[in-house]
Amino acid sequence: HFPVTENYRILVHAHAGRSNTQDAASVEAVSCGANGVWAAVIPQAAQKGHNSSMVFLDNMLQLGNKHVLSDFRLHQARECARHCYYLNFNTYTIPEDCPIWGGRGDQLVHTAFIRHVGGAAWRAENHPRLYDIWHDDQRNTLLSRRDSDLHEEVQQHRVALDRRSAEGQYRIAPLVSDTQTWTNRIDELNANRDLLTSQERERLLGEFTNDIRALGFALMNANIRANLNEKTTLKKLAQIARRNRREQRQCDRVKDFLKATYHQGGGE
After folding, report:
1. CA 86 to CA 80: how far, in whole Å?
2. End-to-end CA distance of the chain
């Protein structure tokens, strides 16, 4: 059990593995005296995910903690979670099995899943729509953005990107991946030598990686969203890095980007 003291707060952050222990660990830790979780709204992150604050709060509610709805403004949290997903993955098409904000959990597949007599009341109380309360005009505005021509164009482009990005042994998550992972991803995309020349690869792969990585952080600092795991993006950054070397320009390194430094540690 955690010690009882007011000198500090204990918050749990757990990464996912091959099971759902990241969410179970959050509940178990709080039941043993921890104060809460240090977690993102959605679980998609790191290698295979991490604990989610929204899933944690929903678990607290299901376990009988009614303060959740009064202490946190959750009645519109479902759409907020969808937008967090959109900001990370540039799509409104949410996987149907996403907890709480995916669509599959809304539909009853067997009456045995109604947990007690008076099941209709249970479904009304615990339905995900509890987190999705909007005025009609607000909802229509949200839907109109999803149905826009721009979103459709982005979505079509993403289908091809997702297929290509799933290939290979490495994946760049900009704030998490270390320099070696960036190097390995760039190298495996460079099979045709159309990203780096053979000479550049032999002499400058490590240095080029740092240049490309620094440019990627510069994009994020400028609030420009780009898929830094995609070959098209990395190829363009390599062209800029090549030009910068030729013109003897430099781009600030990760040490000047605090969020990345917090993730990577002082040695990166």
Report:
1. 10
2. 35
Tens digit of each residue's pLDDT (9 = 90 or more) over 24-64: 999 999 999 888 999 989 888 877 888 999 999 999 988 88
| 77 Cβ contact list (under 8 Å, min separation 6) | 41, 54, 100, 131
Residue 216 to residue 225: CA distance in whole angstroms:
10
CA atoms within 13 A on the CB side of 189: 26
55-94 per-position pLDDT tens digit: 999 999 888 898 988 899 888 888 888 888 887 776 767 7
3-class secondary structure per residue, the chain:
CCCCCCCCCCEECCECCCCCHHHHHHHHHHHCCCCEECCECCCCCCCCCECEHHHHHHHHHHCCCCHHHHHCCCCCHHHHHHHHHHHHHCCCCCCCCCCCCCCHHHCCCCHHHCCCCCHHHHHHHHCHHHHCCCCHHHHHHHHHHHCCHHHHHHHHHHHHHHHHHCCCCCCCCCCCCCHHHHHHHHHHCCCCCCCCCHHHHHHHHHHHHHHHHHHHHHHHHCCCCCCCCCHHHHHHHHHHHHHHHHCCCCCCCHHHCHHHHHHHCCCC
Work out the number of other CB atoms within 10 angstroms of the CB of residue 178.
14
Quickly count: other Cβ atoms within 10 Å of residue 252's Cβ: 12
* Cα separations in angstroms, 99 against 51, 69, 136, 237, 238: 12, 18, 24, 36, 38
The pairing of beta strand 11-12 with beta strand 36-37: parallel
Place of tokens 């709060």: 57
Structure tokens at 172: 């760049």
Model pTM score: 0.67
